[in-house]
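input
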Amino acid sequence: MRPGLILKLSSPDHPGIVAKIATYVASHKGNLIEFSQFSDQIGKKFFARLEIDTSDLDVTVEDFMAGFGTLGRSLQATWHFRPLPYKMRTAVLVTKTDHCLNEIIWRTELNELPIEITSVIGNREACRSITERSGIPFHHIEMDGERREKGFLEIRNLLLAENVELIVLARFMQILPDTFCREFSGKIINIHHSFLPAFIGANPYKQAHERGVKLIGATCHYVTADLDAGPIIEQEVERVSHFHSPTDLSRLGRQCERIALAKGIRYHVHDRTLIDGHRAIVFPD
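output
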């Protein structure tokens, strides 16, 4: 893979932004591999994601990034550079179910996801064998009853010690404390079935079957202090019919969860998402 940079940027929208950014890249002999942009006519904001080949730069990559600051400030922009290639240090949090964890491990081993799984953290032991078979450390942290607050403190300390950049809740059946959500804002991805809030509780697929739903699905989103209400990254749906049993709905739901979560992680680690208030701007690949 050629050396390069990903640039993510958001700013107030006005004419000439694309030309100014492209001119800066060209002025230092950078080659634009991709330039995805979106002008929000309602919010009057500009969003962009660039991939730049830096093989022939006439300055160092560090000087190129630093020099962009003058232009970025003139655009009143918020921006972020990521050198290529890279692997994002990622921790996966689990409880009992393992289909999402298996999907993440499998796609990582296929090099579909540029991540390094630093560890899997579980409040149950159920996923230990799957994790350790893949050579990944597993940490069991008790969180029942009065252990909950201390458990989240242990998780926090572990994430900081491992320099984790991304936290994936792969069917982690615990509500995160508000302070935890704020500290790792924009770095936590969750997956849940799209019945919420219509069918809550232990057996949503049974409830959905009883109501005769025609679509089921899953939503991958960033985690905020508002439960299951963070910016949406990806959604998957399956059409169902009267002959599908609750078991069929559960099977199709797991399929939606795996796909939506894998896509959501991929978009995040490739810097294809920009959080804009309660929504996420996503540039699919």
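quick obs: The chain has two domains: 4-84, 88-282.
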